[in-house]
Hints:
- By secondary structure, the protein is an all-alpha fold.
- It has helices at about 5-10, 35-40, 45-95, 100-125, 125-150, 160-170.
- It is elongated, with a radius of gyration of 24 Å.
Amino acid sequence: MQRPALLARFPKPFWWRPDPRSPWPGDWPVVPNGAEAEYPLLAPDLQLWQEQLEQPFRRLDHQAQLLQHQFWRQRTTLILGGLIATTLGALQTAYGGGNQYIAATQAVVTGLLTGVAALVSGRRSQQGYLDARLRAERIKSEFFLYLAGVDDYSAADRQQRLRYAVEDILHAEGVA
């Protein structure tokens, strides 16, 4: 049985928060295992990825996934809270109004939702997610440009240029 579409995006459990510095089960390799043997001319360059670029890429990739999950969790909380508040309003109407318990519960729920909405806008999870995802993809993109030997990577000091480019990406100002 498939999970509903809204919940299918979420990792299990809802409060998922693995260690961003350790490998995750869903990590896919940018450079597959055994690539050095399959492409011996590229072996030193592929080794450079594994020794120097894999760790910053993974850290940003994991950070992006955590922030994306946080964003989904926040939005789902707002949606479900709005559903509860609306249901309580419908119940109040169905009973003809005047039920103080339903009104008090609805007031508490909407008050909590106001706090959650303020928290969500202050945390800027979506901006942090987009920033971390962009940085991770830029590192990967620079590595592929390096492998192809295009742009600045056709010169003799191409490894140094790659290191500088990755440092610029890691230290660029962002929202997160």
